[in-house]
Amino acid sequence: MGTDPHTPTGAGEHAAGLSDLPPMVRDSYLVAPPHPASGRLPVATTAQYRDLYARSLSDLGAYWASVAADFEWTEGWPPSPALVGDLAEGFSFFPGARGNVSVNCVDRHARTAPDRVAIHWIGEDGARRSWTYREFADQTARFAQVLLDLGVRQGDVVAVYLPNLLETFAVVHGCLRIGAVYNIVFSGFSPAALADRVIDTGAKVVVTADETFRRGRAIPLKATLDQVLPELTSVEHVIVVRRSGNPEVPMTAPRDRYYDEVVAATPQGAEPVALEANDPGFIIYTSGTSAKPKGLVHSGLGFLTGAYHNVRYALDLGPDDVYWCTADCGWLTFPIFELIGATAHGATMLATEGALDYPTPDRLYALIAEYHVTKVFTAPTVLRMLARHGAELPARFDLSDLRLIALVGEPLDATTWTWVRDHVGDGTVEINNTYGQSETGSAWTSSLVGVTEAKPGSCGVALPGHAYAIVNEDGAPVSEGEAGYLTITAPFPTLFRGIWRDPERYRTQYFTRFGPHRYDSADAAIEDGDHHVWVVGRVDDVINVAAHRLSTMEMESALLTTPGVAEAAVIGVADKVKGQVPEAFVTLTAAGGDVSEEQLSARLVEAIGPIARPRRVHVLSTMPRTRSGKIVRRLLKELVVDGHARGDTSGLEDADVLAQLERELGQG
After folding, report:
1. pLDDT at site 192
2. Nearest CA to 204 among 246, 162, 276, 255?
3. Which of 172, 365, 451, 554 has the most CB atoms around it within 10 Å of its CB?
4. What are the angstrom distances between the C-alpha of 181 and each of 150, 158, 500?
5. Which of 428, 353, 415 is nearest to 568 (CA)?
6. For residue 495, what are the contacts with CB-CB under 8 A and spacing of at least 6?
7. Buried b vs exposed e over 350-377: b needs ≥16 C-beta within 10 Å?
8. Which helix (H) or strand (E) holds 468?
9. Is 60 left (phi over 0), alpha (psi -120 to 50) or beta?
10. Which phi and psi (to 5°) does residue 86 adopt?
């Protein structure tokens, strides 16, 4: 199965004759899994996957019930029917069935493997702590009782304003244990962004930390919360995790209490509440860059089912794996692939505080080697950042235990895919690029680890149980290899159930362009002849140059093939003649100092054609990134169009870079 990974074969035998395919798709090639199927998955070959995929869509309710049958249910199981409703009218999976997420993620592993390490936590300053599943279960149950003692009941909201800590796991599962709805607020948000979310949810309790550390600096989380607490009229209690132990952190009794003290004073843990499968589990907000942030509502047990399924296929976690999801808990990647999905599989996990390249650029490699990590989930931009530092860094470490790197967050270019395959680990690391959104609650396109072939740059294939269509503006399916709107045509358990307190916005934003029976992702995608999905960017990021639609991902991929280019970003800017033209930004590797703007512009013309000639190519010292590694292209556009960043910057890894970039772009 598969071909020589160094020999381009086109996008499969069916697509090989399509001369108008974008070069990144046309020149792609199939790569066989470097390791055989583990035996934990119900399929072992691509043909078996395709058969399972077709069968799963023939009866979605039965398929997802077969996944959820792995869990412990207290009543109403098996459900009949397993799925009612649809996208247009609203849907429910396993109606009437009752269970508990924390029982299935924590308790059942504490019973069968109590001494297995659940979580290794590593602080940026080198601090180390670990919990076994027994300790994890004890902390979860006792914190759940703390919440009950504070008056929190099923349906009440708890705001979780925490970084990646051991206690974050117990707080989230403590909420799930009693049916409280949790909302994790990214710990890098500004006071205003924090206030917006707490006010919107009406949270009764906020759980935060005294401080956290980022790039050697203490980040005052409790003090940030204190700035807006007078506005948060719903908040009755604040629980503070001691991370730094700074005695100067202000505490106002009786409202403010320390986590360790209240848990120590609560020796008896709470019993789990039997929750209906479609009861809300949590709220997560999308970025508020252009409008009021949207509070996406996900069900508890539905999300558990889909996240468990996602981790099964995209990671194939087993009891012997040591696994690290590098995301911040404030982004949905972390609940899918660590807090819920990985714990449901009983994995041993790493959770880390701080930046992946601080205090030294080799921190990620050093931790993989130290903990014998077998599988990593991260973002493409993290890999580009690592590649920028060169191959000598990974060569210093024994990474021979590493078998898989999975990715999500933004499109992955083939150049970075190849660099990682060649330089990280022993040359047999499987690289699995996936795709999902906060709204989908899972990365629903992916390789099936050890089973399906990969293509550098693609997002893999649709996982079983997920129905989709790529359509044109009129809603008609596009041809193979043609870019179109990516839509979802049937429900699945992790698909969000609405927008908190705003049902009208839910319908108008997601179910208007193509009618009530299709979820509009607002992403542009291509499907090739091997059924691989290529997400080429947001619909708004497909640049229309003189009536030619150009993918920003395709242009970025072309720039990244230039020796010396470490990162690339492309935006569209207004042009009086052509409507829009591309404008590009790159950072260089240490060896890329002689790369010129003319060379980069010529590379775009060579790879795509004269229509892709950019207005400018800016060589920058850095990029504006979120903590999860995404390049914030919106801010680059604001900097070149307006001369300054005017939108929300609270989610940036380092907001100080904007002043530096403003100077660099102003001098360009």
Report:
1. 86
2. 255
3. 172
4. 15, 6, 11
5. 415
6. 306, 439, 440, 441, 488, 519
7. bbbbbbbbeeebbbbbebbbebebbbbb
8. strand 468-471
9. alpha
10. -155, -175
pLDDT of residue 661: 94
- pLDDT number for residue 8: 32
Please, which residues bridge with residue 580 across strands? Answer: 574
Q: Which of 361, 268, 396, 287 is nearest to 331 (CA)?
A: 287
Structure tokens at 568: 């690339």
Token readout for 63 is 């398929």
Cα 38 from Cα 320, distance rounded (Å): 12
Which of 463, 582, 429, 593 is CA-nearest to residue 533?
463
Distances (CA, A) of 257 to 246, 261, 456, 589: 15, 7, 50, 48
pLDDT of residue 17: 31
Cβ–Cβ under 8 Å, residues 503 and 454: no
- Characterize the bridge pairing of strands 519-527 and 533-538: antiparallel
Tell me, what's the pLDDT at 506?
A: 94
Q: Residue 217: name the closest of 260, 246, 259, 186 by CA.
A: 246
- The bridge status of strand 375-378 relative to strand 404-407 is parallel
Token readout for 598 is 């003319």
- Among residues 230, 224, 202, the alpha carbon closest in space to that of 295 is found at 202
Question: What are the E-state strand segments in 353-460?
Answer: 375-378, 404-407, 430-433, 445-446
Taking the alpha carbons of 434, 435, 438, 439 in that order, is the dihedral positive or negative?
A: negative
Q: Distance between CA atoms of 222 and 251, rounded to whole angstroms?
A: 9
Per-residue pLDDT, 288: 45
Cα distance between residue 504 and residue 520, in whole Å: 15
Contacts of 276 (CB under 8 A, 6+ apart): 95, 96, 97, 98, 301
Tell me what pLDDT residue 20 has: 59
Report the distance separating Cα 467 and Cα 446, nearest Å.
Answer: 14
Residue 377: phi and psi, rounded to 5, are -120, 125
Chunk the chain into consecutive blocks of 10 residues (it has 668) and report each block's average pLDDT, rounded to whole numbers. Answer: 34 36 83 94 97 98 98 97 96 98 98 98 97 98 98 98 98 98 91 92 98 94 97 98 96 97 98 98 76 88 98 95 95 95 97 94 97 95 87 95 92 86 92 95 97 95 98 93 94 97 93 96 93 85 69 84 90 83 91 85 86 91 81 89 80 82 82
Domains assigned to the chain: 23-100+288-536 (3.40.50.12780), 145-273 (3.40.50.980), 546-667 (3.30.300.30)
pLDDT on residue 12: 36
Among 182, 208, 191, smallest CA distance to 295 is for 182
Let me know: does 376 contact 365? Beta carbons within 8 Å.
no
Q: Would you state the structure tokens that stand for residue 312, as one six-digit string?
A: 């099964």
Q: Is the dihedral of CA 168, 431, 407, 104 positive or negative?
A: negative
**Residue 472, phi then psi, degrees to nearest 5:** -90, -175
